[in-house]
Amino acid sequence: METTRLIMVAVGGQGNLLASKVLGEAALISGVQIRMSEIHGMAQRGGVVESALVFGEATSSIISDGEADILLGFEPSETLRALNRCNKDTKVITNTATLPPFTVSIGKGVYPDVENIKALLKEKCAGLVAIDAMKLAKEAGSPMSVNIVLLGALIQSGSLGFSKENVIEAIKRRTKKVFLDKNLNAFDLGFVAAQNYSS
Amino acid sequence: MHKLLNDSPGKKIMLLGNEAIARGAIEAGCAFATTYPGTPSSEISLNLFQMSQESDLYFEYSTNEKVALEVAAAAANSGLRTFCMMKHVGLNVAADPFMTLAYVGVTGGMVILSADDPSMFSSQNEQDNRYYAKFGNLPMLEPSSVPEAKEMMRYAFDLSEELKQPVLLRTTTRINHSNAFVTFGDMKPRQTKGKFIREPLRCVTVPAVSRQLHVKLLEKMNKAKGLSETSDFNPVKGSGKFGIIVNGVSFHYALDAVKDLGIEGDTKILRLGFSNPMPEKLIKNFLKDCEKVLVIEEGEAFMEEAVKAFAQEAGLMIPINGKSETLFSRLSEYDPAMVREKIAAYFGIEYTPKEKLSVDNVPEIPMRPPNLCSGCSHRATFYEVKQAARDMDIICPTDIGCYTLGFLPPLNMGDFVICMGSSVSTSCGFGQATDQKVISFIGDSTFFHSGITGLVNAVFNNHNFTLVILENGTTAMTGHQPHPGVDMERLGLDGFGRINIENLVRALGVEHVSVIKPFKVKKSIETIREALEYKGVSVILSQEPCALYAKSLKLLKPRAFKVSDKCVDHKDCVNSIACPSFYIEDGRVKIDADTCVGCAVCAQICPENAITPLKK
Question: Are the beta carbons of A146 and A14 closer than 8 angstroms?
Answer without folding.
Answer: yes
